[in-house]
């Protein structure tokens, strides 16, 4: 895969999601982490920031309208 992709990781604030987000960020990709807890996401974003700032978006993924709003205008290469 070519580096510099836009990657969206659900559950990116903790556990496996955070590890996945960190891996992509360290490889130079632009990463957005999604989850329900804004503070956890922002902390994770600051800690795993790579070549680009990590965007943190608090969203309830069980509400389709919230997901659409969170991703509006964001190109997604990898989800």
TrEMBL record:
Protein family membership: Belongs to the short-chain dehydrogenases/reductases (SDR) family.
Gene3D superfamilies named among the record's database cross-references: NAD(P)-binding Rossmann-like Domain
Keyword Zinc (UniProt): no
Keyword Transferase: no
Entries under InterPro entries matching the protein: NAD(P)-bd_dom_sf, SDR_fam
Alphabetically ordered keywords of this record: Oxidoreductase
Pfam families in UniProt: adh_short
Protein name, UniProt field: SDR family NAD(P)-dependent oxidoreductase
UniProt cross-references to PANTHER family, sorted A to Z: 5-KETO-D-GLUCONATE 5-REDUCTASE, ALCOHOL DEHYDROGENASE, PUTATIVE (AFU_ORTHOLOGUE AFUA_3G03445)-RELATED
Species assigned in the record: Streptomyces carpinensis
């Amino acid at each position: 895969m070519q580096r510099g992709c836009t990657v969206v990781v659900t559950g990116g604030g903790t556990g496996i999601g955070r590890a996945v987000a960190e891996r992509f960020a360290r490889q130079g990709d632009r990463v957005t982490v999604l989850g329900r807890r804004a503070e956890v996401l922002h902390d994770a974003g600051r800690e795993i920031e790579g070549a680009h700032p990590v965007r943190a978006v608090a969203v309830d993924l069980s509400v389709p309208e919230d997901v659409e709003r969170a991703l509006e205008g964001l190109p997604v290469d990898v989800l």
